[in-house]
Write a structure and sequence with these properties.
- The chain is built from nine helices and 14 strands.
- It is α+β, with helices and mostly antiparallel strands and about 350 residues long.
- The protein has one domain: Cyanuric acid hydrolase/Barbiturase, RU B (60s Ribosomal Protein L30, Chain: A), CATH 3.30.1330.
- It has a four-stranded mixed β-sheet with strand order 1-4-2-3, with helices on one face.
- The longest helix has 19 residues.
- The two termini are about 30 Å apart.
C-alpha cells in the first residue's frame, strides 16, 4: 500500500493556482493527488461561491479518482489554504507504518434523500468501500472528511411541486441536516453505532457522534466527496495522526492532550482538522453566549472564529482547517479534532 504526504499551501484567493507550483517543486504531479482539502474565504453559508470557484479551478486538474473538499469561512485569524494529500511512492527508511488515504465520490443524491436515511446509507457504504480498498479496519481510521450537498431554493420548490417534503424548508437549515446524515453514516461505517441508532439520531438525538467525522455541505455538488485517512503497517512514512474531541469551544485541555502526545513522540504538527459549533444550550460553561441569537452573523461563523483562534494559537499559524456546524461530529457544543503530525527520521547510528 502506497503511503501519502501532506502539503499545506496558503492561497491568495479561491482561484489561486500557485499551489500547483508548490506541488511540482515538492516533486509531485497533479496525478499524484488523492484529495484537495481547502479553506476558502467566503461566508461558509449557502451562497458561499468561493467554494464553487475553488472547485472549478481544481476539479479539471486532478485525477478522476481524487476528490475536493472546500470548506468556506476563514473568520478571525483563520487563513485561506489548501491541504494536498498526495501519494508518496517513497519508502522512508526506519518507518514500519504510516498514513494512507483513499478518496471516492458517492452516487448523486436526490434532493428528497438529503438529510435522510438514504444519505446515511450512501455515506456508510462509500466509507466501507474505502476501508476495503485501503485494507484497514475502523480502528485504524483517524479522520473521515465529507463534502455533501444541500437543498437550494429551486430544489425545495421542486420537491413541493412534486408533492414531496424536503428535510428542511430553509436552505441554511438543510446544511445542518446534510452534515448530520453524513456524520452518522461515518459513525455506522466505523462501527461507532448501528444503523437503527443512527437513523434514530436523525430525529434529534444528540448522544450519537463520531470523533473522526468532519462533514461540510455546499451547493456546488450533488454527491458526497469522501476522504478516509488511516494509519497502516503497509505504508512506511513519517506521518501519523491522533484524534479526539473538544467538549466545548473553550476546551483547550483536550487539544493540549493531543499535542502532548505528539510532543512525546518528537513529532511536528503538520495540520489540525476540527469541527466547531455554537453550543445548542445557549451557554458555554454556565455563561450565556449570543452566537445563536445574532441576526447579523450566522452561528457557524462565530464558532469557526472562536475555535479557529484557539487552534491557530496552538499550531502557530492561521492555516488551520476549522469547519463550522458539528452535528454528530463530537459532542453537542464541541467538535471532532484530528492532528496530523510528522515524526523525525530515526537515528540509525543511535540504534547501533
Amino acid at each position: 500500500m502506497t503511503g501519502i504526504a501532506l502539503l499545506t499551501v496558503p492561497t491568495a484567493d479561491p482561484g489561486d493556482t500557485a499551489p500547483f507550483e508548490v506541488l511540482a517543486e515538492s516533486g509531485y504531479r497533479p496525478i499524484d493527488l488523492v484529495s484537495v482539502i481547502g479553506k476558502t474565504e467566503g461566508n461558509g453559508c449557502v451562497n458561499d461561491f468561493s467554494r464553487g470557484l475553488a472547485a472549478a479551478v481544481w476539479e479539471p486538474r486532478i485525477p478522476e479518482s481524487a476528490v475536493t473538499v472546500f470548506s468556506g469561512g476563514t473568520e478571525g485569524v483563520l487563513s485561506p489554504h489548501v491541504n494536498l494529500f498526495v501519494r508518496d511512492e517513497k519508502h522512508h527508511p526506519g518507518f514500519d507504518r504510516g498514513l494512507v488515504a483513499g478518496a471516492r465520490r458517492s452516487r448523486p443524491l436526490e434532493p428528497a434523500e438529503i438529510g435522510r436515511a438514504a444519505q446515511v446509507d450512501t455515506v456508510a457504504d462509500t466509507v466501507g468501500k474505502l476501508l476495503a480498498e485501503l485494507g484497514v479496519t475502523p480502528t485504524d481510521v483517524r479522520l473521515v472528511l465529507v463534502k455533501c450537498p444541500l437543498l437550494t431554493s429551486a430544489t425545495i420548490a421542486a420537491l413541493h411541486t412534486a408533492g414531496q417534503s424536503p428535510v428542511a424548508t430553509g436552505t441554511y437549515a438543510s446544511m445542518g441536516f446534510s452534515r448530520a446524515a453524513s456524520a452518522l453514516g461515518i459513525a455506522v461505517a466505523l462501527g461507532e453505532c448501528d444503523r437503527q441508532t443512527a437513523l434514530g439520531a436523525l430525529g434529534g438525538g444528540a448522544g450519537v457522534w463520531s470523533a473522526r467525522a468532519s462533514a461540510s455541505a455546499g451547493a456546488e455538488l450533488d454527491d458526497c466527496h469522501i476522504l478516509v485517512v488511516a494509519e497502516s503497517p503497509t505504508a512506511a512514512n513519517p506521518l501519523r495522526a491522533v484524534h479526539g474531541h473538544m467538549t466545548d469551544a473553550l476546551d483547550l485541555a483536550s487539544v493540549q492532550q493531543l499535542l502532548d502526545r505528539v510532543a512525546a513522540e518528537g513529532g511536528t504538527v503538520r495540520q489540525i482538522f476540527a469541527k466547531a459549533e455554537a453550543d445548542p444550550t445557549g451557554s458555554v460553561r454556565g455563561f450565556r453566549h449570543t452566537m445563536l441569537t445574532d441576526s447579523d452573523i450566522n452561528a457557524t461563523r462565530h464558532a469557526r472564529a472562536a475555535v479557529g483562534g484557539l487552534l491557530a494559537a496552538l499550531k502557530g499559524d492561521g492555516a488551520v482547517y476549522v469547519s463550522g456546524g458539528a452535528e454528530h461530529q463530537g459532542p453537542p457544543g464541541g467538535g471532532s479534532i484530528t492532528v496530523i503530525y510528522e515524526l523525525p527520521t530515526p537515528d540509525r547510528n543511535a540504534a547501533l
